[in-house]
Amino acid sequence: MNLHMDLSWTVIVNFVTLYGVKVLASLLIFFVGKKIASIITAIVVKGMRTSKIDETITSFFSNVIYFGLLVVIILAAISNLGINTTSFLAVLGTAGLAIGLALQGTLSNVGAGILLVFFRPFKIGHSVQVAGENGIVEELNLFSVILKTGDNKQIIIPNSAVIGKNIINFSAKPTSRVDLIFNIGYEDDLLLAKNTLQEIVNSESKVLNDPAPFVAVSELAQTSVKLMVRFWVKNEDSATASFSITEKVKLAFDEKRISIPHPPVSVTTEI
Asked: What does the alpha-carbon distance between residue 260 and residue 255 come to, in Å, rounded to a whole number?
């Protein structure tokens, strides 16, 4: 009886020792390999940035490289346990098919991400409108586009939603057109108002001279005459120029007793 128990205990100890070492070795392979994958990815990213490769492509391929290396590391760790990776891959392929059907949305995001990288409708740092959201592109990865809004919020949009909707890139061209609409009363001096607006827009330092800014009557509305001030600016100066001109118009109209019926002003910006 004691001999039988001793033999059983010996078998258990040998089993635990053998497979315990393999499990520890596999865990070591995984964690060390993961660290190496991060280092290799960082080196590749640094090289791409040194070569001045577009940041959008750099960001996307850094994700591809890292996850590709991670798959190799996981397979190496499994192989160390004595599991036949060929059989494992066959099982994984079958499971992958089932998972793929369940995760069609995720896979479509990956496919859309590849299309975004190759067609490059925008770059990191561009001001865009995608899937109805406005912001600065911070990151493009395998699954999503990350935007930062003007009020410093982060918006994560699935790649499939981005590729399936209209994309407006406000940074594609260096300049943009701004239309400011000011209302004046029918009893006000139209020529005085037009000349005042023209002087203000001409004196604004951030307004470009070519194309030349101009003022025109855009509409004879029910309760007011609408005057449009059209000018071109560099993209980064659009808001600043609009704010400055609007303030100067209010001060000038007050001084010259030109009325501003409700609604006083509207703004349209076009690339």
From this structure: 12
Looking at 3.90.79.10, 3.40.50.150, 3.30.70.100, 3.40.50.720, the CATH number of the domain 175-270 comes to 3.30.70.100
Q: At what angle do helices 104-119 and 55-80 cross, to 10 degrees?
A: 140
Q: What single-letter DSSP state applies at residue 84?
A: -
Q: What is the pLDDT of residue 178?
A: 95
Q: What pLDDT, on a 0 to 100 scale, did the predictor assign at position 101?
A: 52
Residue 30 phi/psi, 5-degree rounding, is: -65, -50
> At residue 190, does pLDDT exceed 90?
yes
The burial of 76, by beta-carbon neighbours within 10 Å (0-12 exposed, 13-18 middle, 19 or more buried), is given as middle
- Residue 94 CA to residue 8 CA, distance in Å, equals 38
Query: H helices of 103-178, where?
Result: 104-119, 159-163
In 3D space, the residue among 148, 174, 136 whose CA is nearest the CA of residue 271 turns out to be: 174
Q: In Å, how far are 68, 80, 86, 109 from 93, measured between CA atoms?
A: 16, 20, 10, 20
β partners of residue 201: none
- Whether omega before 211 lies within 30 degrees of 0, making that bond cis, reads yes
Q: Which segment of 27-31, 150-154, 167-171, 177-181 scores lowest on mean pLDDT? A: 27-31
Q: What is 122-169's CATH topology?
A: SH3 type barrels. (2.30.30)
264: left (phi over 0), alpha (psi -120 to 50) or beta: alpha
Residues 121, 162: Cα–Cα separation, whole Å? 10
